[in-house]
Amino acid sequence: MAVTDEAIEKIKTMILSGRLKPGDRLPKEPDLAAQLGLSRNSLREAVKALSLLNVLDVRQGDGTYVTSLEPSLLLEALTFILDLHQDESVVELFQVRAVLDSAASGLAAQWATDEQLAELAALLDSVGPDPTVEELVANDLEFHRLIARAGGNDVLASLLDSLAHRTARARIWRGVTQEQAVERTMSEHRGLLDALVAHDVEAAKARAAVHVGGVVEWLRKAL
């Protein structure tokens, strides 16, 4: 194992063991290096790497702190990777979305409250009779975001949020070029909401997978 990788592992172990908690300030560099049996240079490189991953926050003149470690913060690095690969891997991104959306919808069917279901219904009702493709995609993004949040798993919701925004361009492209894409999307959303209201886990999972899977099928043909 490279010296820097070893340093990263040791800091990670401190966080996982609870010695360092979200918001905690790290000991001064010479003290921490001595505690971990590392050179100050390797410790410095490890801190730099972990700050790029939003695990640590280096504040000039103040010190280095553990971040909040919230999923949305830690997944920003994933968002950057998805941006780089959007054009060449968009089909694979949608395949991953189909799996995760299905799981999130199953959880929402179990745990969504009456208030959350009413919010979803109101969101769908807010779409006018003849929405633009951009309006529909914005509604679609919010619809799936609310479903993921209703499932109660913050990590899954953050992953889906990262994927959803990276695939929005392809959905606009589909709406412009595929016949009846707008009508089909609204119909599938209504069907998914019906399954959630009925708290039918398997139906919700299946409808979500079919909904996103339809985009995958279209993309394969379009590309």
From TrEMBL:
SUPFAM superfamilies: GntR ligand-binding domain-like, Winged helix' DNA-binding domain
Matching CDD domains: WHTH_GntR (cd07377)
Keyword tags: DNA-binding, Transcription, Transcription regulation
A Pfam family: FCD
Highest taxon above the source species: Bacteria
Keyword Transcription on entry: yes
Domain (HTH gntR-type) ranges: 1-69
GO molecular function: DNA binding; DNA-binding transcription factor activity
Protein name: GntR family transcriptional regulator
Organism: Kitasatospora viridis
InterPro entries associated with the record: GntR_C (IPR011711), TF_FadR/GntR_C (IPR008920), Tscrpt_reg_HTH_GntR (IPR000524), WH-like_DNA-bd_sf (IPR036388), WH_DNA-bd_sf (IPR036390)
